[in-house]
Amino acid sequence: MRALVRASAIALVVISLAPAVVAQQACPCVPLTKLWVATTCDTWNCAAAALVLANGDPMTFAVSSGNGDHPWIIVHQIVAGSASEPLDDPYRLEAFDGFFAAAARFGALDNTMRPQIMTAPDGKLLVLSLRDPLPLKKRAVAR
After folding, report:
1. Residues 76, 59 contacting (CB under 8 angstroms)
2. 34-41 vs 72-79, strand pairing mode
3. Most buried among 32, 56, 113, 127, by the most CB within 10 A?
4. pTM check: above 0.90
5. Which residues contact 78 (CB under 8 A, 6 or more apart)?
């Protein structure tokens, strides 16, 4: 009788610990790194289509650039490793955790880089700027 009680107690402990072992194997618990990416759109239709394809994702939004060549910028968050930042895009996006770092970066950019600073839905501060400065306009008449 004693052996039966001891065996059933051991079986109960093993059965109760089995789901915890299975759960640890099923979840590697690797944190996903998120990146913010900016892509340009030449028309509002392009920007609207990107927002429709985002299917209501709160981490995707459109921003006006104020630039006639690329008037709309789609800002969206991706999982690192699933895609990369397009290096041929004229705009670049940098994410910061704190205001002082973002403000310092924003202040360091020249006006010809067309910098913009914004707060993302996840609380990060984003600094959007051109990769290359705008060319200076030459005057039609020399003075």
Report:
1. yes
2. antiparallel
3. 127
4. no
5. 34, 35, 37
Q: Phi/psi zone of residue 124: left (φ > 0), alpha (ψ -120 to 50 degrees), beta?
A: beta
Distances (CA, A) of 62 to 37, 45, 74, 111, 112: 12, 12, 5, 21, 22
Please, are residues 91 and 73 in contact by the beta-carbon 8 Å criterion?
yes
> E strands along 54-135, which residues?
60-64, 72-79, 91-96, 116-119, 125-130
What is the per-residue pLDDT across 14-54, written as a single tens digit (0 to 9) for each?
566 555 545 455 566 777 788 899 999 999 999 999 999 99
Q: What are the DSSP E strand ranges found in the chain?
A: 34-41, 60-64, 72-79, 91-96, 116-119, 125-130
CA torsion angle 63 65 127 38 (round to 10): 60
Best CA proximity match to 95, nearest among 34, 40, 31: 34
Q: Residue 77 class from Cβ within 10 Å (0-12 exposed, 13-18 middle, 19+ buried)? A: middle
Task: Identify the burial level of 110 via C-beta atoms within 10 angstroms of its C-beta, where 0-12 means exposed, 13-18 middle and 19 or more buried.
Answer: exposed
The total number of residues shown for the chain amounts to: 143
